[in-house]
Structure formats: C-alpha cells, structure tokens
C-alpha cells in the first residue's frame, strides 16, 4: 500500500505565490520605480546626462577597476582556497575566518583602514613613497579597495568544489606520467573552471556597486578617481534626482546583464557536472 509523501514545504501554488510577492516587494517594485523615474527625463537630456565626459570617466574607472580587482581575486582567491583545503597548519581556522572579514566589516570602516595604511605616511604607503609611487587617493587605491571587498566571493565559491575534488584522479594522472602542470591543467582546472568563473562574475558585479570602502581611499578627483556610485550621490546632493536616476539606470542595465551571465555560468556548470540535462 502506497502512502502519499508530503513535502516539508508548502504546496507549489502557495510557495510560488509567496516567492513572487516577496520578489516584487523587495526587488521588482523598487527597480520599476527607478526606471519610471528616469522616463520623466527627455531622451536628449537622458543621453546628455549619461554621456557626460565626467560620468563616462567614472564608468571607465568603475568597470576597469572592477575588472582588475576580479582578475586579481581570480588568482589570489584560488591560491587561498587551495591552501585552506589542501594543507593542515597552525592558525588555519583563523585564516579561514579572515576570508569572511570583508563581508562582515562595514565598508566605511574598511575604506578608512585602507586609506590610513596606504596613505603616503601610512604603514604601507611610506614604503612606496621613496619611489614616488602613490597608492592612496589614486586609481591604484580604488583597485585595492575593490580587491579587498570582493575577495570572499572567489574563495567561498571555489573552496567547496576543491573539497569535493577526488585526489585519486590526481594520483592516477601522476602515476600515468603526467607532470604537475598537466595534472593541474587537465584534471583540476576543468573541474574548478565553472566555480572560478562564477566567483569572478560575482566579484565583478559586487565591485561595480561598491561605494563605502572606495570613497575614502580614492580621493574623488574628477576625471581621475571618481567612481559611478559617487556620481549618483553627487547628483542627489545637488537635488538632481532625475539625473541620478538616469545614471542609476545605466548601472542597473549593466548589473542585470551581469546577472544573466552569472546564471548562464551556473547553468553551464550544472550541465557540465551532469546535474542538469
């Protein structure tokens, strides 16, 4: 005699209705209001606002620095995840907890800390001062701040995949005569690649919207170290709400495109691992 097995979660209709309601209140309605606000501006004025040379310079810095920070974390995050998974050493749990620090630390506190140590008279900045290299209040400082806040995305994405990676495959490849680089390139990297790409995309998307940790170390000089979120805040401080909305819509469009890429990467990874047909 077969018994009907009840799910621990509510029925499909109730769960789907709650999901749509929650997403509408939290995500869709605010974003729709943003887009509707931007429609109050004539097309010519909208284009003039988003293509202003100062705003375009902020796009270039924001997306360029975000890309560099994500690439740095792509390699640095892989190395940290590898060390945490493959080696046992004193203080491992402490280092593992430090990875999440950028998540928990208020971004303004991170910005103040970074600006303090990378200033020309700071602990790190004074080491570069004799070579006439300035880190704080330059574009280099922006990259450092974005690298700091986006580090956990790559590490926490790659770490579980590394933990599930079977060492027997590496040992079998090595026993068949494969070199270390061949084992890494043909056995380890193909398995890690989906997680690496997802972590990279998440870090890049997070860096684009970062504000608090950057403004203290960037210096905020026009055409040099102004990020796009700062341009939005500047518009709001000038009571130019429609202009701020126009720039925000551009950021929204780019963020949405990145989300599509992330979802595509996740789908590709699931299909590659045989979890989806």
From TrEMBL:
Residues 59-262 form the ABC transmembrane type-1 domain. Part of the ABC transporter complex CysAWTP (TC 3.A.1.6.1) involved in sulfate/thiosulfate import. Probably responsible for the translocation of the substrate across the membrane. Part of the ABC transporter complex (TC 3.A.1.6.1) involved in sulfate/thiosulfate import. GO terms for molecular function: ABC-type sulfate transporter activity. The lineage of its organism: Bacteria, Pseudomonadati, Pseudomonadota, Betaproteobacteria, Neisseriales. The chain crosses the membrane at residues 15-36, 57-83, 103-124, 136-155, 183-204, 211-233, 245-269. Belongs to the binding-protein-dependent transport system permease family. CysTW subfamily. It is a multi-pass membrane protein. InterPro entries: CysT_permease (IPR011865), MetI-like (IPR000515), MetI-like_sf (IPR035906), Sulph_transpt2 (IPR005667). One of its GO terms (cellular component) is plasma membrane. This is Sulfate transport system permease protein CysT. Keywords: Membrane, Sulfate transport, Transmembrane, Transmembrane helix, Transport. The complex is composed of two ATP-binding proteins (CysA), two transmembrane proteins (CysT and CysW) and a solute-binding protein (CysP). It comes from the Bacteria. PROSITE patterns: ABC_TM1. The keyword Membrane applies. The keyword Glycoprotein does not apply. It comes from Silvimonas terrae. Gene3D superfamilies: MetI-like (1.10.3720.10). It is found in: Cell membrane.
């Amino acid at each position: 005699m077969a018994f009907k097995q009840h799910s621990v979660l509510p029925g499909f209709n109730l769960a789907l209705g709650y999901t749509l309601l929650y997403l509408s209140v939290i995500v869709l309605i605010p974003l729709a209001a943003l887009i509707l606000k931007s429609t109050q501006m004539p097309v010519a004025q909208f284009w003039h606002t988003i293509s202003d040379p100062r705003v375009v310079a902020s796009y270039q810095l924001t997306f360029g620095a975000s890309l560099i920070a994500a690439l740095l974390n792509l390699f640095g995050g892989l190395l940290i995840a590898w060390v945490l998974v493959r080696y046992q050493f004193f203080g491992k749990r402490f280092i593992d907890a430090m990875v999440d620090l950028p998540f928990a630390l208020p971004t303004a506190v991170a910005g103040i800390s970074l600006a303090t140590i990378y200033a020309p008279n700071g602990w790190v900045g004074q080491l570069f001062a004799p070579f006439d290299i300035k880190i704080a209040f330059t574009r280099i400082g922006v990259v450092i701040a974005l690298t700091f806040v986006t580090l956990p995305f790559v590490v926490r994405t790659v770490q579980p995949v590394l933990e599930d990676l079977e060492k027997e495959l590496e040992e079998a490849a090595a026993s068949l005569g494969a070199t270390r680089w061949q084992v890494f390139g043909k056995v380890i990297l193909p398995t890690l690649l989906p997680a690496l790409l997802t972590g990279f995309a998440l870090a890049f998307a997070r860096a684009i919207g970062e504000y608090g940790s950057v403004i203290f170390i960037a210096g905020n000089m026009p055409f040099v170290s102004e990020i796009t979120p700062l341009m939005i805040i500047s518009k709001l401080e000038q009571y130019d709400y429609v202009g701020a909305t126009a720039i925000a819509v551009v950021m929204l469009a780019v963020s949405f495109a990145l989300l599509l890429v992330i979802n595509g990467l996740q789908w590709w990874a699931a299909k590659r691992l045989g979890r989806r047909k």
